Amino acid sequence: MRRLAPFAGLIALALPPGCAEPPPAVDAGVAEVRAAVVVVSGDVRAQLAPVPDVRTATVGHVAGAPRPAAPPVVGGLGRRAAAAAEGLYLDAGDLWFPSYRVLPHRRADARAEAEAHAAALKRVGLAVSAVGEGDLAFGQDVLRELARAAGAELVSANLVQAGTSSLAFAPYAVVSQGGLRVGVVGASPVLPADAPEADAYRFAGLEARAAGPAVAGAVAAARAAGAEVVVALLHMPEPEAQAVLRGLPRGAVDAAVAAHGAGPGWFRGGLGVPTSRGRGVVRLAVGASGGAIAVQGAAVRLAGASLPGFEVEVARGAPEVVGAVACAETCHAEALQAWKKTAHARAMATLVGKKQGRNPDCMICHATGYAPSRALRPVEAEVSCEACHGSSAAHRADDEVPPEYGRVVPGWVCGGCHGVQARQGVFHVGVKQDALRSPGHGIRAPSKN
Questions:
Q1: Burial code of 163-202, b = ≥16 C-beta within 10 A, e = fewer?
Q2: Range of the domain at 163
Q3: Angle formed by the axes of helices 429-436 and 411-418, to 10°?
Q4: pTM, whole model, 2 decimals?
Q5: Which of 218, 224, 162 is closest to 187 using CA atoms?
Q6: 172 and 294 within one domain
Q7: What is the CATH number for 211?
Q8: Per-residue pLDDT tens for 316-360?
């Protein structure tokens, strides 16, 4: 199949208003014309509501002058849904959570918001999403649950299970749109080991290998699987994305979308970045005639009509904390005695010794279930059982129901706090968890019979 570089010209395709360059044209009678629209968001970071348009916001106010009108809002799930309704909807990563690290007092809300978002995206029709580091704030399993609930496929050609060469996600997906078979290749950022964001991989049990060769292999595989058009979702800043694209054969990828762009979105030379927090998307108009492909791209600011019915309401509130003593009163007396010997049991005393015992920013991690909006409750003092295993009220009532995060604590739970302070160095989840194991806590207690 002959491939044309973006903007080389083949088929007349409609672009959004405001695009200065007219689309190319061709005599449609030469061959059958197939056309599709692909809409790509990125770095949404769980932003479901519209946000003020910072381009029109007024800074400061002169005394005595009329106050300016509130700036218009852009983005929001309803506008994103309206844009996605045009065609194939993709996301370039960092979709589900505000950050790669969710502090304990925000976990319940962040999880509830992500689940509501997934249910809405099922209606919107999200087809494929790349995996960003922020998507791993709750680990691999929760990310997969959200994608299933949304009806979407996850793609990352270069994330592997830690210590192995086994891919954690599919490297590509092939979906049909407008009579075209579109291959979608994903790649995740390669982060320095000392970068704070690298905690997302470490606590999720993942490693990122070099993106260039991984993307090249995934593109070839997608073509072999019948993809006529290939879109690369490169969840990395523009320089890294450009380096990946330069390493590919000419025409291997028809369009690419990167991440972490600052300011308004853009599209040029076949690569684009959508405006973050759901304020904009990259829109690709794709056409095929005979054996040739043409792609027109533009960054679109989401300031138009919003589809009704996408106002997401999330029930908020922290889960109930029963406390370490309550856990010990039922079945876990040995675990309580072991916990009393750990630094977790002295977490609040550590703060008091540093004269930070009333600092809510510190208490979030030095207590269990604490929320800065209220006073500390007695059962929340110290880093006790439920700081790691999650709310255990239902488990205490019925031991067949596991604690919120399970008996085996996921690494991302540790990362919520232990990734915060750089002076602690690299936090090795397995080593630290092994140090906490004792009879009755990770090791079966001796029988008393």
A1: eeeebbbbbbbbbebbebbbbbbbbbbbbeeeeebbbbbb
A2: 2-11+30-51+72-301
A3: 100
A4: 0.79
A5: 218
A6: yes
A7: 3.60.21.10
A8: 566 678 787 778 777 888 877 888 888 888 888 888 888 887 787
